[in-house]
Amino acid sequence: MASRMELLLPWCRLRFPVSGTSQTRRAPGRPRLSQVRLSSTKAAAQRVPGREEADSKVGTRKKTFTEVQAERLEQAQRTVLINCPAKISEKKFLTYLSHHGKINSHYFYESYGTYAVVEFSEKDSIASLQDVTRTPGIEEECAVPFKSRLFTLTLKNPSTQAANQAPVHCHKQSTIVVNDLVQKLCSADSVSNQLYTLMDEYQLTEENTKLRFLACSLIQDIACAYFPECTVKPFGSSVNTFGKLGCDLDMFLDLDKIGRSPTRAKTGPFYMEYQMKRVPSERIASQRILSMIGDCIDNFGPGCVGVQKILNARCPLVRFSHQPAGFQCDLTTNNRVAMRSSELLYIYGSLDSRVRALVFSVRCWARVHGITSTIPGPWITNFSLTMMALFFLQKRTPPIIPTLDQLKDLADAEDKHIIEGHDCTFASNLNKIKPTENTETLDVLLSDFFEYFGNFAFNKNSINIRKGKEQNKPEPSPLYIQNPFERALNISKNVNESQLDRFVALARECAWILQQEDTGHSSLSNSQPWGLAALLLPSVASHCIKGKKRKRGPASERIKSLLDSLKINNANSLVNNGGKRTFSNQTQ
Ligand code: GTP
Ligand code: MG
Fold it and tell me: Which of 507, 508, 500 is nearest to 461 (CA)?
């Protein structure tokens, strides 16, 4: 989890008028566009329905976040992770493991070697496998005798067994590089489809999601040594529908079941209570628990390296790298509000396909231009950027997503959540939320997103997804985004004036580029990046001159210079592929 810095700087901003919000946005006669523009919703409907979408329904009812989480956590407990040779007979491997029970699913991936994720149908199969697994004989070092669900499988006769054996098929665990992405985007037939292409390339795959739950479950095995009733759950972008391949894995050590008291016996003359160690505050309890679990992960956790205890952060955490899974993990406890934020984002991301497509694209755009960073600092975070995109979608006419207050009005009794005095109530049942009547295309939404935030009165207004309305800023941070649950807090308090300035300048530049394309002022040839692809070119940033409206040269000259910074090896193949959409099906 990104740490939060506090910087208070006065800030004011000029308005920048950008005209034209029509739905017909591209120069007539551009051959790469389809003649019939699909609306985003139609385009979405044409996509191959993913397993994720199919799995998230019970009959016609969509599952709740809690139901999906519980299922995946249970599935993870029946799963093992096996380091194996790349050249192995998959059939023999599965036959060998089947001796311990029925296998529901399996897949291979690469991370410091080849790994197999194998899900058994029964948990007992794991005990059976552990019974026949030996501890490693290491000559010069000593192995810590902790029996986990992380195994190594070797061949008895490598030279004969691996000969003539093709390497197993590995599922991808990372995104393609930006240059390749730009090329792919250029072969889409509309900006809307560019956004969906980007999302298909970047989103977490079903396999990667399973691996995230498995990594949590392996950490839970360690924490269970002290707290047998605990659970370790993923939160943040791993589960909120906005996760990108390679994003960090935020883990929540949930000790709530232990703290929950059974109803007091009504009969009998006595009360029985546990004797427990007392500490001055919940924060200190969290720090001590995390410190100790951090030591266990460091000392006994196979594959866990680089353990850092960051206990003085606003939200204390243990950071480590789970090498076999390939994730950087942030383990926190006593963080129920963040869990609730993840569920809220999950709901927004599940309501309309345009929400995720827009958020993925904006996040990717921000990352490419250094608006966001993996290093903590005065930058806008992905969480803040997501809030900005959601706010923008609430402000459309008609709105594409409801406000948090409207979701609260739809809540049932079981949706009521008061956490540390904060009202975190909202409807968790997706079926209760009426679909929007807004039919705007993503072409329009992307361009208007940049126009909207290029003009936003950041100097006086705050962003508030609870109300879906700008409000006066209660304090002079350059960027004020109200925390949806802890309402007195600004989630973007860390952002300084110059970072906000960069964001606004880039947003204006991108609004301008998209509008030039719409109105036909751009004289690009077909081989040049266009639409979203053009916005991802590194030289977009170099055209933003801080604080000034710059004089613009002819679009063709500007784009030519953008192109100089990007090596496009395969421009002809893009022109010649007939403008087909190229969706990757490997994820779902
Ligand atoms: P990436 O990791 O960048 O892909 O996105 P993320 O949404 O997972 O963000 P991050 O890992 O930084 O934080 C994990 C979760 O913690 C978020 O999804 C939020 O629920 C919560 N969180 C992060 N930053 C803040 C903040 O400033 N305030 C509050 N209240 N919660 C935050
Ligand atoms: Mg995260």
Answer: 500
Binning the chain into helix, strand and coil, the percentages to the nearest 5 are 40, 15, 50
Domain annotation for the chain: domains and CATH numbers: 65-171 (3.30.70.330)
* Per-residue pLDDT tens digits for 451-510: 999 999 999 999 999 999 999 999 999 999 999 999 999 999 999 999 999 999 999 999
Contact 79, 217 (CB under 8 A): yes
Is the omega angle on the peptide bond into residue 316 within 30 degrees of 0, that is, cis?
no
- Spatial contact of 535 and 510, defined as CB atoms under 8 Å apart: yes
Q: Whose CA is nearest to atom 22 of ligand 1?
A: 338
What's the gap in Å between 481 CA and the centre of ligand 1? 13
Task: State the DSSP H helix or E strand holding residue 436, giving kind and residue range, or none if neither.
Answer: none
In the numeric block, the tokens 């049942």 are attached to 429
Q: Measure 390 CA to ligand 2 centroid, in angstroms.
A: 18
Q: Is the pLDDT of residue 227 over 60?
A: yes
Atom of ligand 1 nearest to the CA of 330: 11
Which residue minimizes the CA distance to atom 29 of ligand 1? 491
Q: Are 334 and 282 in contact (CB under 8 A)?
A: yes
Question: With 70 as the cut, is the pLDDT of residue 331 above it?
Answer: yes
CA angle at residue 550 from 546 to 552, to 5 degrees?
140
> Would you state the pLDDT for residue 552?
42
Q: Closest ligand to 244 CA?
A: 1
DSSP state of 28: T
Pocket of ligand 1 (CB under 6 A): 1-2, 4, 236-237, 240, 247-248, 250, 338, 341-342, 381-383, 483, 486, 491
Question: DSSP per residue over 475-516, as a string?
Answer: S--SS-BB-SSSTT-BTTTT--HHHHHHHHHHHHHHHHHHHH
Mean pLDDT value of segment 195-201: 96
The closest-lying atom of ligand 1 relative to the alpha carbon of residue 337 is 30
- What global pTM score does this model have? 0.83
467 neighbors 359 (Cβ within 8 angstroms): no
Q: Using CA atoms, how far apart are residues 43 and 48, in angstroms rounded to an integer?
A: 10
DSSP secondary structure of 230-246: -EEEEEGGGTSS--BTT
* Token pair recorded at residue 245: 């391949």
Residue 501 φ/ψ, nearest 5 degrees? -60, -45
Say if residues 112 and 323 touch (Cβ distance below 8 Å): yes
What ligand 1 atom has the least distance to the C-alpha of 247? 4
Q: Which helix (H) or strand (E) holds 15?
A: none
SS3 466: coil
* Amino acid of residue 420: E
Residues whose CB is less than 8 angstroms from the CB of residue 110 and which lie 6 or more positions away in sequence, other chains included: 170, 173
- Kindly give the distance from the C-alpha atom of residue 383 to the centroid of ligand 2, in angstroms, as a whole number: 8
**Among candidate residues 360, 346, 353, the one with its CA nearest the CA of residue 439:** 353
What pairing do the DSSP bridges indicate for beta strands 317-322 and 327-333? antiparallel
245, 250, 367: which to mutate for ligand 1, most atoms within 8 A of CB? 250
| CA distances to 111, 477, 501, 545 from 495, in Å | 34, 8, 10, 20
Distance from the alpha carbon of residue 458 to the mean position of ligand 1, in angstroms = 22
Note the pLDDT of residue 56: 60
